[in-house]
């Protein structure tokens, strides 16, 4: 939680009053502390306060804080949470050099972070305390005095040892602290012209670099990992010239790692090399590129994959290295292509990319190795595909071939003649994990084209997956998504807005499959099918070929039946699909001459029924979205009598228990309002200039219409809705209306009319959270008068604050912590 | 060096959340090279990034989907599943998520509620959407109780009833002979609508248990209920209103049943309301998953559905202003927003009214404030709300207390215990108690701390019915008290850990002696491996025999595995309880019903022991041949194979595409062959080193049981058959 930027960046007097009591509680080992989250939030607040002002001043005005820190020094049984909190607080305060000096006057910091502090006590066994110690030092290490302190109190040795802490969090923080301290050391005198010799460097930096060197030489893999992590952080965050000297000094040791078999800490080594390669200071170093090239060839194919991807993502990099990296990345797919031994006429992968025997061995060594390597490769190439710096020329055709081959191995439809192919078949058949990865990859490849023969194969394999009873729901979903992407990418025939013949053929074969999938016993499959149908219709609903094929199938009818699906997610997707079909005139019965228009009405009624009766929020929300879209687009059924439509919908939506439905109702009201007033509904009172004022005659008519649909009653009641977004939306809507109708009428004139009194009475009741209707129908004049009397701007300001801003305030936190004292035992920690 | 020492198969377990902490449960377990995430919860005490576990510690190992084999969700509470859509749709995990059917049904409702409060009421950006919740739920694979689900060829999971809330489950995760049980939250005592948690004597290497009430022996539930009813009754009698803030599903139903029964018995007339349509929703789910409720509710369900309440009606906002007494269950449970807060505001000023908080409230919420005794609350717009109504706290949470936790440990008989989901101090107490009473190591890692366990797994051996019958035909019935030799074949999977401790020379010698036609090379990683590991992420375990029976030394050329059935043979726990026990064969996709196994693990000889005795193939039996791939059982029954003969490898080695496989399987006649098809041979075609015959003998005092008569669900890594 952050209090930054909103309030209480300074210590307010009320909080200052509460602090001494809280510090006393924290320093008392007999008083259990509420929970660690409170202490975390308290630290957030102190951080905000110290960032905004002087820490010394804070301590002088609140001496209880220093007292608390002194209490911690006393050997007593404080909770690990409070100890950790105190260490972190001390670090935050000492981040300002003058405050550091202030605290050091009493040797407080040495007591807290030195041997005599928690470090030497039993409390040190708690990871929270070690974490607090590290984080405290991390905050503190901001100035030269802090560096002297670190060296002086022997903290470096402890940090070195904490790199191997059993807690990942502590170990990671220790590594980051070392990198931070190193950068801080070098920020001073040695920054400009540091020599590679340790003697040129500040003592603290020397110690750190010596430690890193020693670790790199170690035979212990975790120690090597720690050193590499420190270096990765350093090169990743600091791009000063001295980092080049550091690299010159340490790169031979890094290169030595490559001589070991297996290469130790390969993951961390890859991170380091990429971090160095991204550094603008080091990227001119030829040695670095050589090391990268060596590493690519030394690492196993699984380990080399991330490095190859990282190299290919680099903005500037020697072409030979890029080619090597691309070759390494594609090797597993090259093996697959060779193993599949299909379509011999197709272009192969770039020169140098062949199915390496080591890669083949890895692929065939075990199922998990094969699956892991293939999934990783597919994901890496998928990431690379849309990048501007991807290798050029991009081997689209062989990649397509490889993806198809992998998918065929996985569904058992491949008929390889090679031994490797046969083995891959056995390993991959039915492997859902690879199927998912390959389908994602195939979908991404749709961004580029390929030879028609291959595209046909792609569509065929997608169809196989969509048809197969063995396809899992997740695989089917991905197959639908990939199919959609390939359909979208299909080239339009020249001079025609319809689909190309291949896509049309695909669609003809696909729709019976979709039909079957809409009847699946798995809700996930029905839902994915409906989502696919909605997308298809949105994209091609206006095209004759698609319309003909769709209407010839039973898909629209089935989609309509799914409006009554037992699963709410499916009902919601069916609502969306039917809304889209209906908008495009693609409902099953619309083409039928015996139901001229009659059935179209029933969808409206069906959806209204769902809106008023469905027990779940998703379908009701979907209905509101469809209705809003219908109104905006002038759907035929709505256009017949928009007023009646809006009145009915608002009546139902206003009663809904789901506030998102009510908010959506206001969205629909806004569209209607804009249409009635002849304005675009995109008005946002906070960012845009007010809309044009409507002519009085037209405005009066519009207001009459708004009254007839009872829009004002809905909006006024929503203004006081207990759910903030509803009230916010209503506020925006009424501000829009008021701005539009500004010069109309005179509040004083209308103020005395009995209708205004009735409207105001209703408003008061709604404000008090009561239900009910006004005694009389609201009239435009009365509405406008009431509208002008409400402080909408003030309300909008209040609503803009998050609803829990009071709860989040520091005062509330301090009060809560104090109030909890003594009640903890009574209210045992219960769970959700 | 003790048994198995130095041959450790490390099983790291890392709590990313819920280590010495309540909230944000998320534990990573690595078992025999498989990585499983247990729960994916959020911390309700934070509104920023800290509410979710820090997944960057996992993503450092590459893509999440590649690193994790699966995610398991124990139940629908948000501290166990609240981060799931974030994890799957925003961080990018694309693999399977396992949970029970009720959890699958209810989880999205709670996530949706949480989203609405977090995003829309507090205006938070960068949060998961409804569509993300749906997409996340599409990745869920629902499991039945006691159904063994194969996540992949090696990793299997099995759910046990946990009580606590509808659909809560404990999960056993097993890879070969190594297993971990994760309890999630559980309750060892039945309540009014749920049963007690139950697990069989599965003897996991590690039991990861919650420890919320690590030091508490809970008072009588009856007293607590009586107290609750008394307070409600008194308030209503004097004309006051009672507000009970609850979460949508869970404890609310327990309290509803309690009040409903009381109202009926006392013939009370004051209305009881339940807010916003949740009554129907709850009823729907309880009806749908009636098998997950306790025995009483299931029994009476036909006559009367306990969740269709006579006295409890749906609440309308307008009712809050009605005069006279009433009881209202309203959401959310911490009074931090919505209807419960709105009603609280209306009723707080009247001392006749009462609010009963039945659950935990995080700092900052109105619920927390009133529970800690604050009586003047600042509300929005600087309004001051004076709380005059009575405030009561009653814990109705359904966690096991200290006794219950001990009972579960006793029941499961783990080799070690790891405590999570509790406070450090209390855990320390329970840890000592567990270590003293059960003589097992107990761990209590903090968040981010890794615990690595040495394991010394035994390799259970099964005996086929055919072999037993043949032995019986050949001689007299086996005397249960007399050691007896059986002839069989030992098949070892490529990942059988024994190879890690057998010398390379020995293995090569063994392989040379085989005349196997299938490739016999061992995976390079295994040959290279020392005790610390055999390839990335996989470590060898010992083929371990605690009491090597040197007395059974046979003549030269014989190999031995001492079969030592465990003491529970024939006395396994009865399979009964909520949801139906037994191995369910229902599943989906790649799930297989639980492979059945012999009546307990039989232990093979330790590698050193074997080596010392110069193990080599039995001269009397031919080599094993055949493409041992998934579903290869059908190949056993290829026409032309003589009885007892092992299958021959088809001409096209290693290539057995799906259709062919199905055809072969279809031809398999019903026969008394061992049901080992799902066990040792799945997709291990290329790297299985076939070891020939091993003589086996039953240990004195135990009888052998044919394959398939046990339901305890262990998947043997070594099979012995005729």
UniProtKB/TrEMBL annotation, chain A:
<dbReference type="InterPro" id="IPR016024">
    <property type="entry name" value="ARM-type_fold"/>
</dbReference>
<dbReference type="GO" id="GO:0016477">
    <property type="term" value="P:cell migration"/>
</dbReference>
<dbReference type="GO" id="GO:0010212">
    <property type="term" value="P:response to ionizing radiation"/>
</dbReference>
<dbReference type="GO" id="GO:0030307">
    <property type="term" value="P:positive regulation of cell growth"/>
</dbReference>
<dbReference type="GO" id="GO:0005654">
    <property type="term" value="C:nucleoplasm"/>
</dbReference>
<dbReference type="GO" id="GO:0006006">
    <property type="term" value="P:glucose metabolic process"/>
</dbReference>
<dbReference type="GO" id="GO:0006915">
    <property type="term" value="P:apoptotic process"/>
</dbReference>
<keyword id="KW-0963">Cytoplasm</keyword>
<comment type="similarity">
    <text>Belongs to the BRAT1 family.</text>
</comment>
<protein>
    <submittedName>
        <fullName>BRCA1 associated ATM activator 1</fullName>
    </submittedName>
</protein>
<dbReference type="InterPro" id="IPR038904">
    <property type="entry name" value="BRAT1"/>
</dbReference>
<dbReference type="GO" id="GO:0008428">
    <property type="term" value="F:ribonuclease inhibitor activity"/>
</dbReference>
<dbReference type="GO" id="GO:0051646">
    <property type="term" value="P:mitochondrion localization"/>
</dbReference>
<dbReference type="GO" id="GO:0006974">
    <property type="term" value="P:DNA damage response"/>
</dbReference>
<dbReference type="GO" id="GO:0160234">
    <property type="term" value="P:integrator complex assembly"/>
</dbReference>
<dbReference type="GO" id="GO:0008283">
    <property type="term" value="P:cell population proliferation"/>
</dbReference>
<dbReference type="GO" id="GO:0034504">
    <property type="term" value="P:protein localization to nucleus"/>
</dbReference>
<dbReference type="InterPro" id="IPR011989">
    <property type="entry name" value="ARM-like"/>
</dbReference>
<dbReference type="GO" id="GO:0005829">
    <property type="term" value="C:cytosol"/>
</dbReference>
UniProtKB/TrEMBL annotation, chain B:
<dbReference type="GO" id="GO:0004521">
    <property type="term" value="F:RNA endonuclease activity"/>
</dbReference>
<dbReference type="Pfam" id="PF07521">
    <property type="entry name" value="RMMBL"/>
</dbReference>
<dbReference type="GO" id="GO:0005829">
    <property type="term" value="C:cytosol"/>
</dbReference>
<dbReference type="GO" id="GO:0006368">
    <property type="term" value="P:transcription elongation by RNA polymerase II"/>
</dbReference>
<feature type="region of interest" description="Disordered">
    <location>
        <begin position="647"/>
        <end position="671"/>
    </location>
</feature>
<keyword id="KW-0479">Metal-binding</keyword>
<feature type="region of interest" description="Disordered">
    <location>
        <begin position="1"/>
        <end position="20"/>
    </location>
</feature>
<keyword id="KW-0378">Hydrolase</keyword>
<feature type="domain" description="Metallo-beta-lactamase">
    <location>
        <begin position="23"/>
        <end position="240"/>
    </location>
</feature>
<dbReference type="GO" id="GO:0160232">
    <property type="term" value="C:INTAC complex"/>
</dbReference>
<keyword id="KW-0963">Cytoplasm</keyword>
<dbReference type="GO" id="GO:0032039">
    <property type="term" value="C:integrator complex"/>
</dbReference>
<dbReference type="GO" id="GO:0016787">
    <property type="term" value="F:hydrolase activity"/>
</dbReference>
<feature type="region of interest" description="Disordered">
    <location>
        <begin position="556"/>
        <end position="626"/>
    </location>
</feature>
<dbReference type="GO" id="GO:0005654">
    <property type="term" value="C:nucleoplasm"/>
</dbReference>
<dbReference type="GO" id="GO:0034472">
    <property type="term" value="P:snRNA 3'-end processing"/>
</dbReference>
<keyword id="KW-0862">Zinc</keyword>
<comment type="subunit">
    <text>Component of the Integrator complex, composed of core subunits INTS1, INTS2, INTS3, INTS4, INTS5, INTS6, INTS7, INTS8, INTS9/RC74, INTS10, INTS11/CPSF3L, INTS12, INTS13, INTS14 and INTS15. The core complex associates with protein phosphatase 2A subunits PPP2CA and PPP2R1A, to form the Integrator-PP2A (INTAC) complex. INTS11 is part of the RNA endonuclease subcomplex, composed of INTS4, INTS9, INTS11 and inositol hexakisphosphate (InsP6). Interacts with WDR73; interaction is required for the assembly of the RNA endonuclease subcomplex in the cytoplasm.</text>
</comment>
<comment type="similarity">
    <text>Belongs to the metallo-beta-lactamase superfamily. RNA-metabolizing metallo-beta-lactamase-like family. INTS11 subfamily.</text>
</comment>
<dbReference type="Pfam" id="PF10996">
    <property type="entry name" value="Beta-Casp"/>
</dbReference>
<dbReference type="InterPro" id="IPR050698">
    <property type="entry name" value="MBL"/>
</dbReference>
<dbReference type="InterPro" id="IPR011108">
    <property type="entry name" value="RMMBL"/>
</dbReference>
């Amino acid at each position: 939680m952050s209090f930054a930027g909103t309030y209480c960046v300074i210590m307010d007097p009320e909080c200052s009053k509460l602090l001494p009591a809280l510090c006393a509680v924290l320093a008392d080992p007999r008083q259990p502390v509420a929970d660690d989250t409170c202490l975390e939030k308290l630290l957030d607040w102190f951080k905000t306060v110290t960032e905004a002002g002087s820490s010394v001043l804070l301590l002088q005005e609140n001496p209880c804080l220093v007292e608390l820190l002194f209490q911690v020094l006393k050997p007593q049984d404080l909770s690990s949470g409070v100890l950790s909190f105190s260490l972190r607080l001390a670090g935050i305060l000492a981040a300002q050099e003058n405050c550091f000096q202030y605290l050091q006057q009493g040797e407080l910091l040495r007591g807290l972070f030195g041997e005599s502090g928690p470090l030497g006590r039993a409390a040190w066994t708690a990871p929270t305390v070690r974490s607090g110690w590290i984080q405290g030092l991390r905050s503190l290490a901001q100035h030269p005095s802090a560096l002297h302190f670190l060296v002086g109190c022997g903290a470096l040795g402890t940090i070195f040892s904490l790199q191997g802490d059993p807690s990942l969090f502590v170990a990671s923080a220790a590594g980051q602290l070392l990198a931070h301290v190193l950068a801080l050391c070098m920020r001073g005198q040695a920054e400009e012209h540091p020599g590679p010799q340790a003697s040129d460097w500040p003592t603290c930096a020397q110690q750190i670099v010596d430690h890193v060197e020693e670790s790199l030489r170690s035979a212990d893999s975790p120690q090597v990992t720690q050193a590499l992590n420190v270096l990765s952080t350093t090169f990743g965050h600091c791009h000063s010239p001295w980092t080049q000297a550091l690299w010159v000094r340490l790169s031979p040791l890094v290169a030595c790692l490559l001589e070991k078999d297996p290469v130790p800490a390969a993951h961390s080594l890859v991170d380091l090399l990429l971090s160095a390669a991204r550094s603008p200071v080091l990227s001119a170093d030829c040695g670095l590129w050589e090391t990268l090239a060596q590493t690519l060839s030394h690492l196993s194919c699984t380990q080399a994959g991330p490095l190859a991807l990282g190299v290919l993502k680099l903005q500037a990099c020697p072409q030979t290295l890029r080619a090597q990296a691309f070759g390494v990345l594609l090797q597993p797919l090259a093996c697959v292509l060779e193993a599949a031994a299909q379509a011999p006429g197709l272009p192969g992968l770039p020169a140098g990319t062949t199915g390496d025997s080591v890669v083949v061995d890895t692929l065939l060594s075990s199922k998990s190795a094969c699956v892991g390597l293939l999934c990783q490769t597919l994901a890496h190439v998928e990431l690379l595909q849309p990048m501007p710096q991807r290798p050029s020329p991009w081997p689209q055709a062989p990649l397509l071939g490889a993806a198809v081959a992998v998918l065929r191995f996985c569904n058992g439809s491949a008929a390889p003649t090679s031994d490797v192919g046969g083995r891959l078949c056995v390993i991959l058949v039915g492997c859902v994990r690879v199927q998912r990865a390959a389908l994602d990859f195939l979908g991404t490849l749709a961004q580029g084209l390929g030879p028609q023969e291959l595209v046909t194969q792609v569509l065929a394999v997608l169809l196989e997956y969509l048809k197969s009873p063995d396809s899992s729901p997740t695989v089917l979903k991905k197959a639908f998504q990939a199919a959609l992407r390939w359909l979208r990418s299909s080239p339009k025939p020249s001079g025609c807005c319809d689909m190309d013949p291949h896509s049309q053929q695909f669609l003809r074969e696909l729709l019976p499959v979709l039909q079957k999938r809409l009847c699946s016993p798995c809700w996930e499959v029905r839902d994915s099918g409906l989502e696919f149908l909605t997308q298809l219709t949105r994209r091609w609903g206006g095209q004759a070929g698609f319309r003909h094929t769709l209407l010839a199938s039973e898909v629209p009818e089935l989609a309509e039946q799914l409006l009554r699906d037992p699963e709410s997610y499916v009902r919601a997707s069916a609502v969306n699909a039917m809304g889209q079909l209906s908008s495009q005139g693609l409902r099953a019965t619309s083409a039928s001459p015996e139901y001229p228009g009659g059935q179209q009405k029933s969808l409206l009624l069906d959806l209204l029924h769902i809106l008023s009766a469905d027990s779940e929020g998703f379908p009701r929300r979907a209905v509101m979205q469809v209705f809003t879209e219908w109104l905006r687009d002038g759907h035929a059924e709505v256009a017949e009598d928009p007023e009646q439509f809006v009145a009915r919908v608002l009546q139902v939506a206003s009663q809904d228990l789901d506030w998102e439905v009510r908010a959506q109702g206001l969205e629909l009201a806004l569209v209607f309002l804009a249409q009635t007033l002849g304005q675009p509904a995109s008005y946002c009172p906070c960012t845009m200039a007010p809309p044009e004022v409507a002519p009085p005659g037209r405005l009066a008519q519009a207001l009459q219409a708004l009254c007839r649909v009872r829009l004002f009653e809905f909006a006024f009641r929503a203004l006081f809705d207990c759910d903030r977004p509803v009230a916010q939306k209503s506020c925006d809507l009424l501000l829009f209306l008021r701005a539009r109708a500004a010069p109309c009428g005179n509040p004083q004139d209308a103020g005395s009319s009995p209708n205004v009194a009735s409207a105001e009475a209703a408003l008061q009741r709604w404000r008090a959270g009561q239900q009910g209707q006004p005694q009389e129908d609201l009239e435009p004049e009365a509405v406008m008068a009431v509208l002008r009397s409400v402080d909408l701007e003030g309300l909008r300001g209040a609503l803009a604050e998050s609803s829990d801003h009071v709860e989040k305030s520091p005062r509330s936190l301090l009060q809560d912590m104090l109030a909890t004292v003594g009640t903890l035992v009574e209210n045992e920690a219960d769970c959700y | 060096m003790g048994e198995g020492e130095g041959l450790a198969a490390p099983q790291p377990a890392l709590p990313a959340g819920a280590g010495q902490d309540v909230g944000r449960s998320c534990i990573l377990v690595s078992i025999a090279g498989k990585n499983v995430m247990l729960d994916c919860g959020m911390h309700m005490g934070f509104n920023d990034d800290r509410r979710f576990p820090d997944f960057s510690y996992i993503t450092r190992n590459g893509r999440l989907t590649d690193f994790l084999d699966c995610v398991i969700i124990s139940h629908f509470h948000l501290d166990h599943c609240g981060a799931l859509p974030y994890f799957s749709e925003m961080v990018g995990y694309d693999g399977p998520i396992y949970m029970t059917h009720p959890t699958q049904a209810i989880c999205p409702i709670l996530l949706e509620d949480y989203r609405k409060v977090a995003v829309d009421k507090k205006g938070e950006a960068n949060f998961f959407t409804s569509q993300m919740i749906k997409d996340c739920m599409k990745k869920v694979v629902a499991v039945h109780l006691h159904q063994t689900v194969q996540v992949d060829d090696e990793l299997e999971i099995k759910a046990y009833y946990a009580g606590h809330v509808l659909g809560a489950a404990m999960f056993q995760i097993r890879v070969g002979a190594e297993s971990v049980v994760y309890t999630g939250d559980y309750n060892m005592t039945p309540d009014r609508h749920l049963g007690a948690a139950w697990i069989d004597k599965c003897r996991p290497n590690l039991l990861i248990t919650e420890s919320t009430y690590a030091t508490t022996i809970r008072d009588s539930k009856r007293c607590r209920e009586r107290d609750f009813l008394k307070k409600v009754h008194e308030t209503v009698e004097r004309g006051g209103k009672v507000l009970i803030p609850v979460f949508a599903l869970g404890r609310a139903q327990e309290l509803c049943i309690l009040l409903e029964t009381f109202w009926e018995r006392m013939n009370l007339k004051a209305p009881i309301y339940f807010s916003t349509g949740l009554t129907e929703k709850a009823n729907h789910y309880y009806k749908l998953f009636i098998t997950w409720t306790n025995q009483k509710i299931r029994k009476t369900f036909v006559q009367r559905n306990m969740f269709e309440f006579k006295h409890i009606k749906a609440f309308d906002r307008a009712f809050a202003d009605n005069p006279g007494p009433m009881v209202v269950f309203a959401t959310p449970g911490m009074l931090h927003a919505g209807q419960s807060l709105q009603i609280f505001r209306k009723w707080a000023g009247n001392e006749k009214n009462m609010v009963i908080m039945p659950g935990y409230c995080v700092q900052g919420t109105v619920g927390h404030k009133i529970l800690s005794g604050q009586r003047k609350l600042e509300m929005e717009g600087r309004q001051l709300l004076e709380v005059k109504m009575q405030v009561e706290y009653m814990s109705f949470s359904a966690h096991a207390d200290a006794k219950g936790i001990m009972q579960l440990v006793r029941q499961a008989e783990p080799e070690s215990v790891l405590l999570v989901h509790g406070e450090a101090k209390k855990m320390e107490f329970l840890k000592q108690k567990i270590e003293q009473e059960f003589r097992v190591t107990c761990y209590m890692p903090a968040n981010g701390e890794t615990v690595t366990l040495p394991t010394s797994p035994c390799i259970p051996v099964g005996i086929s019915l055919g072999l037993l019958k043949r032995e019986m035909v050949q001689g007299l019935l086996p005397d249960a008290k007399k050691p007896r030799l059986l002839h069989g074949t030992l098949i070892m999977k490529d990942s059988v850990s024994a190879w890690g401790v057998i010398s390379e020379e020995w293995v090569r010698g063994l392989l040379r002696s085989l005349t196997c036609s299938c490739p016999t090379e061992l995976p390079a990683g295994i040959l290279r491996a020392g005790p610390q590991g055999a390839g990335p992420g996989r470590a060898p375990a010992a083929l371990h025999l605690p009491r090597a029976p040197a007395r059974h030394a046979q003549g030269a050329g014989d190999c031995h595995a001492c079969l030592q059935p465990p003491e529970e043979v024939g006395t396994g726990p009865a399979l009964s309880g909520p949801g139906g026990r037994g191995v369910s064969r229902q599943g989906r996709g790649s799930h297989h019903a639980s492979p059945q196994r012999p009546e307990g693990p039989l232990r093979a000889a330790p590698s050193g022991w074997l080596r010392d005795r110069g193990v080599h193939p039995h001269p009397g039996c031919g080599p094993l041949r055949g493409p041992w791939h998934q579903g290869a059982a059908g190949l056993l029954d290829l026409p032309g194979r003589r009885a007892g003969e092992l299958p021959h490898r088809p001409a096209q080695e290693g290539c057995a595409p799906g259709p062919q496989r199905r055809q072969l399987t279809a031809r398999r006649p019903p026969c008394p062959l061992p049901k080992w098809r799902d066990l040792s041979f799945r997709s291990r075609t290329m790297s299985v080193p076939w070891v020939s015959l091993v003589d086996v003998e039953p240990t004195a005092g135990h009888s052998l049981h044919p394959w398939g008569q046990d339901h305890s669900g262990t998947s043997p890594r070594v099979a012995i058959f005729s």
